[in-house]
Task: structure prediction
Amino acid sequence: MGLPLPVPTEQTRLVEAAREGDRTAADDLSRAVWPMVRRIALAVTGNPTLADDAAQDAMLRILRALPAFDLSRPLGPWVRTIARNVAKNARDRTEGPVEPAAPEAVPAPDLERRMDLDAAARSALAAFSELTPRQREIIELCDHQGLAPTEAAAELGIAPGTARATLHAARAELRRRLLADRPDLLASLRDA
Result:
């Protein structure tokens, strides 16, 4: 008696169709994984401009490597591994520290609110970019992608206790940097 075959997921169907040359499936798959690839690249590089370049490079590698992807395995960890490796290579090739680019303006009802949101976004991006690459990775995996610290540990090849400690330290450091740069946030948090 053999093992039951896994039920194909929508992503599995997209991968199969993209492998057969279906450009629409390749586009749909790209759109589905792009946000995750971009967030990983930003977490690893700490710089939006460098992250955009790394994410685009990672997407090309993912699409080129689809024929080698094992359909019996989940797609997410495979994509995250490629994105992380490409971003690490891009970060390592960069000479010296890279200043984070200013975030795009967020539409707001009025100018004062938009300026406040822009300032908060710049502060958050600066604080995030000052974390260590490992801290940015663990925050990306746990806080953005929703992985448990033990799952993030397996993906990063580290011990679960190390992942939990790194996540705790990263959150504390991010909080410290944000509050140092924007003391008004503490009052806002107390009011909320």
Remarks:
- The chain has two domains: 10-93, 111-191.
